[in-house]
Amino acid sequence: MARKPWSFKEDRRLMELAKSSISLEEAARQLGRSPDAVKRMALRLGLSIKPKSTKKS
């Protein structure tokens, strides 16, 4: 599956969402991206964004 490149606007939105302490799942929903994609980009941007639940399966 081809990945859709992130736009500058999406990068900025992710930064805003991370600052607001939103969950990873909610940020993914708002950005129209998978949680994994959001997590990868957050790491690239040096952001901390937490999943809704921290359960280990």
- Rg over C-alpha atoms, rounded to the nearest angstrom: 11 Å
**Arithmetic mean pLDDT:** 90
Helix content: 40-55%
The proportion of strand residues reads under 5%
Low-confidence stretches: none
- The total of helices stands at 3
Quantity of strands, as a count:
0
* Structural class category: mainly alpha
**Approximate shape:** globular
Helix-strand pattern:
HHH
How far do the termini sit from each other? 26 Å
Biggest sheet, in brief? none
Would you give an account of this structure?
The chain is globular, with a radius of gyration of 11 Å. It is built from three helices and no strands. By secondary structure, the chain is mainly alpha-helical.
Summary tags:
57 residues; mainly alpha
Task: Record the SSE blueprint.
Blueprint: H1 8-19, H2 24-31, H3 35-45
Helix pairs in contact: 1-3, 2-3
Short description:
By secondary structure, the chain is mostly helical.
